[in-house]
């Protein structure tokens, strides 16, 4: 019933013809992100009926007032070092709610971390930190609006002025606009989802890499949050609209709505733009690993934390979706995780010595044990990652 209900709220995105066959697929692919091997089953989900959409730029004036590469864990601390180790400093973007907040809380609770909550809404972040019981000395809120490259640069300057070391960067913030009929745009005029989730983080990570390099912490890490829905080797990744960056022609032409506001040059689709942005996040992590892991000792990682169906990510979805999505994920797909559990998972990727391998996309099974997951063909395409890197560098003004 719940599945039918979930299905009935998705008329514009997906259709499943036979409930029985679909249930069989679910058994094979849990929410934890195991590979979806039987493409025939995925094909039971019909393609999205796309409609032509007018692309009228709406500029977002974001700045507010106020199989995996094997490398041994880099620079892990010996037990002796750990005793005297200073507190680590972790910057987490989008720590004002959901996964980012839960991770900040999990790290703060260990007493070993100071968290820089890099958030677009200063007051909201401050209230959120207090609402989960974080102590003042365990966090600092700093303004960062990823939908403005100027704000990203300002954040980096402000962070450097605090003269704190940077030991871990977590690129977590994201926007998801599944019901948007037309694209909206960042301050510099990029489609909002890819502009925020990928380009904002791309610039931030490139700038802060210098700071990470200088860290003397036993394990320095950069984590970019990915997702199962960007991976078409899973059932979840086969729910239309599917991620597909194509030949990046839309991105290369500026992603500004003049030619296209989608990376592949197609018609605007908010849900696809989000999934594309997650593919960019996972490709960027691997490209960073290839270019910098050996030279810097920084561990680069991505992850799918589980389906945290209650977060603010779904705030723009229709109310019926928000009502049915959590029970659908809890009882049907069984991929649901609480914000608290997901926060603990990401906190492991931040600080657990056993998750210190670079170039990995982490997932968790139903017993909450971590494992190195396989990315889809596109999300592990090294040539595409290189091209994405080069085009993104131009767009954010690094090349
Ligand atoms: P939330 O909406 O709860 O958190 C997103 C955070 O991003 C919020 O703090 C939000 O700030 C912030 N944010 C949005 N836009 C900007 C911006 N322009 N500048 C700075 N911060 C911004 O969603 P989740 O916690 O679910 O999402 C966190 C990450 O987890 C995302 O990367 C998402 O893709 C990923 N993820 C989530 C899954 C899920 O099931 N929920 C599954 C897989 C991955 P504000 O509070 O001001 O809105
Ligand atoms: Mg999905 C094992 C199956 C599974 C998992 C793990 C997810 C995770 N989803 C699964 C299956 C299905 N979903 C099925 C069979 C359907 C059709 C009924 C379905 C539908 C669906 C929708 C409409 N699912 C969604 C949406 C969203 O709007 C969410 C999304 O795609 O956001 C981009 C979503 C998600 N499903 C997930 C996860 C983790 C999401 C959240 C998005 C993300 O961050 O990737």
TrEMBL record:
Family statement: Belongs to the short-chain dehydrogenases/reductases (SDR) family. POR subfamily.
Biological process (GO), any one: photosynthesis
Assigned keywords, A-Z: Chlorophyll biosynthesis, Chloroplast, NADP, Oxidoreductase, Photosynthesis, Plastid, Transit peptide
UniProt-annotated location(s): Plastid, Chloroplast
Pathway: Porphyrin-containing compound metabolism; chlorophyll biosynthesis
Name this protein carries in UniProt: NADPH-protochlorophyllide oxidoreductase
One Pfam family, short name: adh_short
Entries under PANTHER family matching the protein: PROTOCHLOROPHYLLIDE REDUCTASE C, CHLOROPLASTIC
Main location group: plastid
UniProt-listed Enzyme Commission number(s): 1.3.1.33
Class of enzymatic activity (EC top level): oxidoreductase
GO molecular function terms noted in the UniProt entry: protochlorophyllide reductase activity
Function: Phototransformation of protochlorophyllide (Pchlide) to chlorophyllide (Chlide).
GO cellular component term of the entry, any: chloroplast
Catalytic activity: chlorophyllide a + NADP(+) = protochlorophyllide a + NADPH + H(+)
Stretches the record annotates as Disordered: 66-87
Family matches, as Gene3D superfamilies: NAD(P)-binding Rossmann-like Domain
